[in-house]
Amino acid sequence: MWIDTHCHWDAPEFAEDREAVRARALAAGVKRFIVPVVQASDLARTQALCRAAGQPYALGIHPLYTPGAQDADLALLDRMLHEAATDPLLVAVGEIGLDFFVPGLDPERQQFFYAAQLKLARKHQLPVILHVRKSADQLLAGLRRIPVQGGIAHAFNGSTQQANAFIEQGFALGFGGALTFERALQLRRLAAELPETALVLETDAPDIPPHWLYKTAEQRQQGERSRNEPCELPRIAETLAALRGWSLEQTAAITSANACRVLPKLNG
């Protein structure tokens, strides 16, 4: 069984064939995919969608959505986390974090929502799913100030030192489509050398397409689009298996066990 630890199945890109996407995932052996919410207006909708499908989810406010977020959104998140405390499908607070790659975002506003959501994760005794883009050191600083029950550093692409710092905080690191590109030398080195207990797999569907779905800037300008899906996870996993010298069966077993360790409610 495969677990896709990060899949935006609730995204508009899947509006027309959402159930077919789920069916393709199940047929590929991806029995569970974790759906992290990105903005307060999606909290209830995504929760209902995942409950109806029996798929795990996380509730949070993504750093890219902090410009439109309100302080009251945190109160709503707090209430929904409380009301879903006994829901076995609620596995984390997420997707939360910091993004210092996209221009025009207010760093202080991002930090405010990040710290507030770490506090909510502590209050509700949940791990977190972190958005890490040009922000690993700042995220780690926040975790040292407000420790949580670990979680997943999604789409990790930092240094070995940063990776080990997340691992020491009880985190696994998410690897996905970017790993399939031959030029991703640092990422592949990390995937090959980090402790096997630190690795989980993800697609970030519909984003971060593997190389066989990738469209160039010219293709995108001509209207072509790449849409990643959770069914691509086993093929993405072939790259990790090759780097580690594992069979696909080993890769599925190890990464699924890691996901269940850092997100304990997946064991339910």
Secondary-structure map:
Layout: E1 2-4, H1 18-27, E2 30-33, E3 35-36, H2 43-53, E4 57-59, H3 71-83, E5 90-99, H4 107-123, E6 128-133, H5 136-145, E7 151-154, H6 160-168, E8 171-175, H7 185-193, E9 199-201, H8 217-221, H9 233-244, H10 248-262
Parallel strand pairs: 1-2, 3-4, 4-5, 5-6, 6-7, 7-8, 8-9
Helix pairs in contact: 3-4, 9-10
Low-confidence regions: none
Strand order of the largest sheet: 3-4-5-6-7-8-9
Secondary structure category? alpha/beta
Give the fraction of residues assigned to helices: 40-55%
* Tally of strands: 9
Cα radius of gyration in angstroms? 17 Å
Number of helices: 10
Shape from CA axes?
Answer: globular
Tell me the major beta sheet: 7 strands, parallel
Secondary-structure element sequence? EHEEHEHEHEHEHEHEHHH
Give the termini separation. Answer: 15 Å
Strand content: 5-15%
- Overall mean pLDDT: 97
Walk me through this protein's architecture.
- With 268 residues, this protein is α/β, with parallel strands linked by helices.
- The chain has helices spanning 18-27, 43-53, 71-83, 107-123, 136-145, 160-168, 185-193, 217-221, 233-244, 248-262, and strands spanning 2-4, 30-33, 35-36, 57-59, 90-99, 128-133, 151-154, 171-175, 199-201.
- The strands form two sheets. It has a seven-stranded parallel β-sheet. A two-stranded parallel ribbon has the order 1-2.
- Helix 9 (233-244) crosses helix 10.
- The longest helix is centred in the middle third of the chain and has 17 residues, at 107-123.
- It is globular.
- The two termini are 15 Å apart.
- 46% of the residues are buried.
- The model has no long low-confidence stretch (mean pLDDT 97).
